[in-house]
Amino acid sequence: MYPGRHAVEHPEQPAIVMAGSGIRVSYGELDRRANRMAHLLRAQGLQRLDHYAVFMENHPRYAEICSAGERTGLYYTCINSFLTAEELAYILDNCRARLLITSAARLDVARQALALCPRIERCLVLDAPGLQDGREQDYEVALAAHPDTPLAHERLGAAMLYSSGTTGRPKGVLRPLPDEAPEPGLPLFAFLNKLWRGRAGMVHLSPAPLYHSAPLAHLSVTLRNGGTVVVMERFDPEQFLALVQRHRITSTQMVPTMFSRLLKLPADVRKRYDLSSLEVVIHAAAPCPVQVKEQMIDWWGPIIHEYYGATEGLGFTACDSAEWLAHRGSVGRVLLGELHVLDDQMQPSPKGQPGEIWFKTASPFEYFNDPERTALTRSADGSMSTVGDIGYVDDGFLYLTDRSTFMIISGGVNIYPQECENLLITHPLVADAAVFGVPNADLGEEVKAVVQTMPGVPADGSTAQALIDFCAEHLARQKCPRSIDFIEQMPRLPTGKLYKKPLRDRYWAGHASRIV
After folding, report:
1. Per-residue confidence at 211, pLDDT binned at 50, 70, 90?
2. Is the pLDDT of residue 49 over 50?
3. Residue 482: inside a domain
4. 261 CB-side CA count, 13 A
5. N or C end of the chain: smaller count of CB under 10 Å?
6. For 139-153, 240-254, 273-287, which range has the lowest pLDDT when averaged over its residues?
């Protein structure tokens, strides 16, 4: 997120365009304001490897706040803007942030969290003219007190982001930070730029929350290329198509649930927009149902690229459309790290058989301030790491099955619910679906589905039976849900990741749960 020479050579070129408000931030403005913020951080006493935190919605000032950290040698932690005060306070305390930047839209939650976080010395608030109340201060007033010239000694900084916490407390992923100038940046950005053909003049559409690792990385890569990033305040499928046409978007990064929502637009809406400017569409975050991706490639052409790589950076796989069509359902070949698929005894799983995915790590990491959970990700000899994903390798391509924590054991049979979820989401009655194990006195667990229906579809027994019958047509009996419940809104994180824990907890109350 360091604009470097682009701020000098093309100061008036738009770096950021907000999709809803139309607010534009030029490269010159971005660089000047990031310099002011960098001086503020230094004046606050933050030194190399110290931490500050960002808690706000997608905002025109997001990039400058992060860019300041990338030129001061600091770790900045972008936090899920939908967290509760208690959840926010946990991360603020755990990451040892000394400064918090938030917005008026998130100030109520931030204030509640600040009451629990005495370590936070100062809280700067965007869109709060004239605010001065204890630790809280108007961001613009604070920024104006500092020069817009570069620091005398700029050092490379980086994000320290937290895992989504879908199976437990979020964990801060800390990577070593080299003591060097902010240009050319971390080697990972050069790798991603080459892989996805980043170039000068690119126009990237960012439809997801910027606090997540993938959107943040694509923002950084685009700005280092001198391109323009169009930021959606929130994802809306038809607005997405309209933005591609209006801004002649060349690249975007998405998640499978966005594909599903686009495909469920009426045919006349899908045909209304010119998408011919798209060159590269990248997706990850969750396994994409085969039928969904087939339809997307039919619609947009062979421009869709998929990758697999946890926030922890253990390893990285990727495939383009041609490779995926030859290995449908795969998340690609290994490009970073050394992949091993192992059974419970840490022995190699037979070809095509699911096992836990381990990497001889491409990038060293640790969970910040949490040595015990760091140790749980390591093999006994410390040479490999895992985040608990399950998959198998066939013909050199990796296929994801599920997370180990989501596996259902029913009558001694291991069942991975992702397969059933992927099937249900393709049904025209279904807007979203979750599948997991619930208690069964005889089998230990049985397969349960929770479904969010499409608008106007009745959430009743006939719909449930139709979906159970649909599953039975395509899956082995033990993989099919024995029952289906309905929910008005599926608990998905804004990144697209399904948050199963609160769903499962309802059914495991009073039982010996395997949930972690």
Report:
1. very high
2. yes
3. yes
4. 16
5. C
6. 273-287
Percent of the chain at pLDDT > 90 equals 67
Domain of 118, in residue numbers: 27-182
74 plus 98 within the same structural domain: yes
DSSP code string of 479-490: GS-SEEEE-SS-
Domain boundary among 377, 403, 429: 403
Q: Is residue 357 part of a domain?
A: yes
Please say if the pLDDT value at position 516 is more than 50.
no
Question: For 213-242, what is each residue's pLDDT tens digit?
Answer: 889 999 999 999 999 999 999 999 999 999
Cis peptide before 170 (omega within 30 of 0): no
3-state secondary structure of 70: coil
The conformational region for residue 401 under phi > 0 = left, psi -120 to 50 = alpha, else beta, is: alpha
64 and 153, same domain (yes or no): yes
Give the max Cα distance, the chain: 70
Give the three-class secondary structure for 455: coil
Domain assignment present for residue 222? The answer is no
pLDDT of residue 513: 37
Q: Residue 353: pLDDT above 70?
A: yes
Residue 271 CB-density burial (10 A; 0-12 exposed, 13-18 middle, 19+ buried): exposed
The CA angle 402-167-498, to the nearest 5 degrees, is 60
CA 501 to chain centre: 18
pTM (two decimals): 0.84
pLDDT on residue 41: 98
- Select the more confidently predicted residue: 378 or 252: 252
Tokens of 142: 């604070």
Which of 182, 197, 226 delimits the end of a domain? 182
Domain match, 329 and 358 both? yes
Cα(327)–Cα(317) distance, integer angstroms = 13
Same domain? For 426 and 370 the reply is no
Whether 41 and 73 map to the same domain: the answer is yes
CATH code, domain with 433: 3.30.300.30
Read off the amino acid at residue 515. Answer: I
